[in-house]
Amino acid sequence: MPNRARFLDLLTHQASARREHDSRFAVLMIDLDRFKHVNDTLGHPVGDQLLRKVADRLTSIMRAGDILSRLGGDEFAVVLVDADPSAADQLAQGIVENICELPFLLDGQVVYIGASVGIACSCNDGDEPDELIRKADLALYAAKADGKGRLRRYDAALNAASMERRVLEGGLRQALTNSELELFYQPLVDTQTGRITSAEALVRWHHPERGMIPPADFISLAEDTGLILPLGDWVIRTACLEAASWPDDMSVAVNLSPVQFREPGLAASIETALLASGLQPDRLELEITEGVLLSEEDQTLATLTRLKAQGVRISMDDFGTGYSSLSYLRRFPFDKIKIDQSFVRQAPEDKECAAIVRAIITMGKCLGITTTVEGVETQEQHAFSIAEGCDNVQGYHISRPLPAASFAAFRQTWKTDRRLRTAA
Ligand code: C2E
Ligand code: CA
Ligand code: CA
Question: What is d(CA 290, CA 60) in angstroms, rounded to the nearest whole number?
């Protein structure tokens, strides 16, 4: 099968031939979903076998004359000759359905994967090979962002979105050197004592022109570009330094991205931050989502175990969404489960949500894991959380995330009116 270089040659050849005959062609970029998982769990020989089977299937649904190529990894591309946009859509749809719906039999195991497809057409998107590849790539990227197992045709809005991302990426690089990032702190309150036991560090970006940008708008960009590594490092160092000035019985919680766990140096850089700040390890909590445990599990568990051995505490964040596999709780001794905001948001009125919160709290008690209800916005939700016996509450009802200085001031006033708050 042609590789990337050969694909470019063939595409260039098609482009000039088609120009002479004034006929249309399309470029399809195909990326497999969950291929990495197959490779990681069943081994590379099985991964190779899967790639060959995918290639066979793609060949079987293409027309003679179309060109299939493997660009590398689990990425394939097709040049569709004499095709208008609707023919390209049709083939792309066929590919997505075929790969997603029919399982593969590999080494006696039934394996389901998926495929996402990005499309660029010579009639709409120009006939320069490089340009078509770039546009089909952008469309593929958007298809994956839409939720995988989808196809997407290039349009001008994608170009605008990609420009916007590139501008934001440049800005984020500068944000790190220009000190435009700041950590806000949101308190967690112990439901038994009414004391503030810890605060979660939440990053904010003060953009010189756009004002404050919330993490939802730049964390995934930082993850995609690798900027999460220096950014995450900054967050850890800053949070440890700040927390070292808090009362001794108060910890700080830091969010970690799955991308940070792919770096072998993570444990060492956390240890360095602890040493440099003088913060006791048991005053640092790391919040991870199950995304962290989905890939590279061995290395991740090794990192978590090493940190835990030093006294650092590990929390499972956003519990109850995603897979919420209970086996994660068995494989690693988490110290805390944070129940996803979406459940308490509708409790206590919504009986199902209330039951889920209750069940997670009970499970935590049985496993000896502390539970936090986060996203508590109202008096009712606060009272409900206390009544259900959760250990900590966090949310706007207690306080929004605050800049370091305001958080210090908040701690002072909290001491005086905490009875009032928890009595409710
Ligand atoms: P998260 O870890 O689940 O953090 C809780 C989010 O819920 C925060 O949003 C917080 O401001 C918000 N929140 C807290 N209480 C309430 C409430 O009562 N009502 C409502 N509606 N919202 C509440 P924020 O600060 O915008 O952060 C969003 C997400 O960005 C975080 O979700 C976390 O996943 C990520 N994030 C924030 N800082 C960092 C960081 O330093 N590193 C990494 N990797 N991710 C971060
Ligand atoms: Ca969190
Ligand atoms: Ca959370």
Answer: 38
What would the pLDDT profile of 119-162 be if each residue is shown by its tens digit? 999 988 888 899 999 999 999 988 988 778 899 999 988 888 88
Do residue 148 and residue 205 come from a single domain?
Answer: no
In a domain, 414, yes or no: yes
Residue among 176, 198, 202 whose CB has most ligand 1 atoms within 8 A, to mutate? 202
Domain that holds residue 97: 4-154
Tell me how far the alpha carbon of residue 347 lies from the centroid of ligand 3, in angstroms.
17
Atom of ligand 1 nearest to the CA of 215: 30
Distance between Cα 136 and ligand 2 center (Å): 35
Please tell me the pTM assigned to this model.
Answer: 0.78
Within 13 Å of residue 12, how many CA atoms lie on the same side as its CB? 7
Instruction: Judge whether residue 419 has pLDDT over 60.
Output: no
Residues 82 and 207 in one domain: no
Residue 49, pLDDT above cutoff 50? yes
* 164 belongs to a structural domain: no
CATH (domain of 355): 3.20.20.450
Task: Report which secondary-structure segment, H or E, holds 25.
Answer: strand 25-33
Kindly report each contact of residues 79-83 with a partner whose C-beta sits within 8 Å and lies 24 or more positions away, as own/partner.
79/7, 79/10, 79/11, 79/14, 79/25, 79/26, 79/27, 79/28, 80/25, 80/26, 80/27, 80/28, 81/14, 81/18, 81/23, 81/25, 82/23, 82/24, 82/25, 83/24, 83/25, 83/26, 83/121
